[in-house]
Amino acid sequence: MSTHPTRKREPAVTPAPHPGPASHPGPASHPGEPPAPARDADAPDLTKPPVPALDRGEPSAPDRGGPPASVDFGRTTWAWRRAGTALRVDRRSVLVCAALATTVLVVGVLTLGTGSISLTPGQVVTALLDPDSDRRARLVVVDWRLPRLLFALICGAALAVSGAIFQSLTKNPLGSPDIIGFSSGSYAGASVVMLLLGSANYLAVGAGSLVGGAAAALLVYLLAYRGGLHPFRLIIVGIAVGAGLSSVTSMLLLSVDPQAAMLAATWAAGSLSGLGFTELGPAAVGFVVLTLWSVLVVRPLVQLEMGDDAAVALGVRAHRVRLSATLVGVALTALVTAAVGPIAFVALAAPQIAQRLTRSSTTLRIAPAALTGALVLVTADYAAQRLELPVGVVTVCVGGLYLAWLLARQYATRR
User: Fold this and answer.
1) For residue 261, what are the domain limits?
2) Residue 269: CB partners within 8 Å, gap ≥ 6?
3) CA nearest 162: which of 179, 182, 177?
4) How far apart are CA 93 and CA 355, in angstroms?
5) 44 in a domain, yes or no?
6) How does pLDDT run across 17-57, given as a tens digit for each residue?
């Protein structure tokens, strides 16, 4: 039996593949563990950090044919730093305020020269700045017409600030005191003091106007509150309450002495005539105090415009802020009503005009709104003197057109 030598079989050796992206072992491969599965060559490598488009040689967004994306760098501000404190102001608001103040000054000089005794702007400026100027011109400008102009400035600014507050509270451009019934409440309270109590004293009429406006505000809030304060419901209820209070005032006018009723009706038209420096002092002090008060509630009111939840998260006490803002708004309206009677539509239009001029996201910019209101009322008084009409009649005519335009614009926006 022949034997053949046994040949030991060696294991077959598989040639190692060429290293490449398709066969690169993953980072999870360790001795004793199966190698990571091979990935496709076109699949992205998730184990490496992403490479920017410019580093990969790919075109950036502007090179793909589209325009570059616009970047909002915010509003330009000016900053003053003194003693470790910084004050930042919006540049556009400052420029708008400067332009408004200049326009108010020009219209004011024209107003002081308008009347039965006409004066040139040069004569008006000389009478204001030179105590030794023509006695007749100085009597007309300083003693007769200057109190009227100052009252127009104060009342216009007060109405504008009040309107800005209520428009922020209601989050609606229609939320002004003459629309939601607060002006009617002030008018009714002042009429009760004048007609039933027989007092024409400025402080007494002012107190009655304040009480009437506060009562109207309380009534509107109570009727409009249904598990919350919806702005649209507040405006509708305010219009109804204002109509009811106006009818009560009309009944008072018809039930008293005709002479007293005629005097009250003349005052109710909204007139700046017959006002002197005696009434100007209390009105100016009240305006300064209430304006400073309104400045304190501006920041929390702007935060409330973002919603109650966001404002409360920032530490705002919503109910307290709303109460404080309502009180200061009603007090500003009562201040004007006691001095010159109810003047409509300045509180409605001035904050919206100021917001468009400053291109702000809120009406609560006190300085632009106040200057706009002052300009609106001074311009209306200038036209009223030339037409020999009460200033309230002029503001109603112009404000009615503005209200119609505003409603048409809102309707077109919602379609």
Assistant:
1) 88-414
2) 341, 390, 392, 393
3) 177
4) 10
5) no
6) 555 444 444 444 455 555 555 555 555 555 555 544 444 44
Cα–Cα distance for residue pair 308/318, rounded to 1 Å: 7
Beta bridge partners of 355: none
What is the count of structural domains for the chain?
Answer: 1
Q: Reduced to 3 states, what is the DSSP secondary structure of residue 81?
A: strand
Q: What percent of the chain is helix, strand and coil (3-state, nearest 5)?
A: 65, 5, 35
Q: How many C-beta atoms surround the C-beta of residue 134 within 10 A?
A: 14
The residue type of 79 is: A
CA torsion angle 154 160 166 168 (round to 10): -130
Q: What DSSP string describes 227-240?
A: SSB-HHHHHHHHHH
Q: What is the CATH number of the domain that holds 352?
A: 1.10.3470.10
Burial pattern 249-259, b for ≥16 Cβ within 10 A else e, equals beebbeebeee
User: Which residue shows structure tokens 């034997």?
Assistant: 3
387-405 residue pLDDT tens: 888 898 899 888 878 878 8
- Looking at the chain, the number of H-run helices and the number of E-run strands are 14, 2
Residue 360 lies in a domain: yes
Cα 34 to chain centroid, rounded: 70
Which among 127, 122, 152 is positioned nearest to 140, based on CA atoms?
127
Asked if 168 and 302 count as a contact pair (C-beta separation under 8 A), the reply is yes
Q: Which long-range contacts (CB under 8 A, 24 or more apart) does 378-382 make?
A: 378/104, 378/107, 378/108, 378/111, 378/149, 378/152, 378/153, 378/156, 379/107, 380/346, 381/111, 381/148, 381/149, 381/152, 381/272, 382/107, 382/110, 382/111, 382/114
- Is the model's pTM score more than 0.90? no
Q: What is the pLDDT along the chain (415 residues), one digit of tens a residue?
A: 444 444 444 455 445 555 544 444 444 445 555 555 555 555 555 555 554 444 444 444 444 444 343 334 456 666 666 666 656 677 888 899 999 999 999 999 999 998 888 899 999 999 999 888 888 889 999 988 999 999 999 999 999 999 999 998 888 888 888 888 888 999 999 899 888 887 778 788 888 988 999 999 899 988 888 776 777 888 889 999 999 999 989 888 888 888 888 878 878 888 888 788 888 888 899 999 999 999 998 888 888 888 878 888 888 888 888 889 989 999 999 999 888 888 988 999 999 899 889 888 777 788 999 999 999 999 999 999 888 888 988 998 888 788 788 778 777 777 6
Task: Report how far residue 155's alpha carbon sits from residue 209's, in angstroms, rounded to the nearest whole number.
Answer: 15
Asked if residue 206 belongs to a domain, the reply is yes
In a domain, residue 145? The reply is yes
